[in-house]
Design a protein that fits this description.
With 162 residues, this protein is mostly helical. The chain has one domain (3-127). It is 69% helix and 4% strand. It has a two-stranded antiparallel sheet. The longest helix is centred in the C-terminal third of the chain and has 34 residues, at 128-161. The N and C termini lie far apart (103 Å). The model has no long low-confidence stretch (mean pLDDT 89).
Length: 162
């Protein structure tokens, strides 16, 4: 066989080779952007915002549904990776680039993350007002429940006196 052909074949099959932090041979990519996000997202804590957005954008373009599930997994503070900044940066990008998809998922942010993530991830986006409506609704519900608890305590005190 031609030596040039073997070298070209070897170079072609090694395009995805890389090195780990310890110098071991590894693949740079799974060749699936969603799997790359799943595998690498937790290690993006110190990466630039542009890198985080590119990771999510590539995954979103490959499969929007799985990319959203992956983003919420990476963000999840209970059963996921708890990656706050990655989530905020990527969801903010989503609000600007794909607002209808982001809007469908706004309600889940406080469940998987924290209430302030709803604020930070929608800041200066078309969905800011929608996020504030969710916050307002929850505050009104909390106030109503607090008033009910105050009534229960007040009645308990009155019953104890009699």
């Amino acid at each position: 066989m031609n030596n040039n052909y073997l070298n070209a074949l070897k170079n072609d099959t090694n395009f995805n080779d890389g090195l780990t932090a310890n110098g071991a041979l590894t693949h740079k990519s799974t060749l699936n952007p969603v799997l790359d996000m799943f595998a690498q997202g937790g290690a993006y804590r110190k990466r630039s915002e542009a890198d985080k957005i590119l990771l999510f954008k590539n995954a979103y373009e490959a499969d929007p549904t799985l990319a959203m599930k992956c983003l919420f997994y990476l963000a999840d503070i209970r059963c996921g990776q708890g990656e706050r900044n990655l989530f905020r940066v990527c969801f903010n990008w989503l609000c600007k680039e794909h607002p209808s998809a982001a809007k469908r998922n706004l309600q889940y942010i406080p469940e998987f993350r924290r209430w302030d993530d709803l604020i930070y991830s929608t800041f200066k986006t078309p969905l800011w007002n929608d996020a504030m409506k969710i916050v307002k609704s929850q505050l009104e519900l909390d106030i109503k429940e607090l008033e009910e608890i105050e009534d229960i305590v007040k009645n308990a005190k009155n019953n104890r006196k009699s």
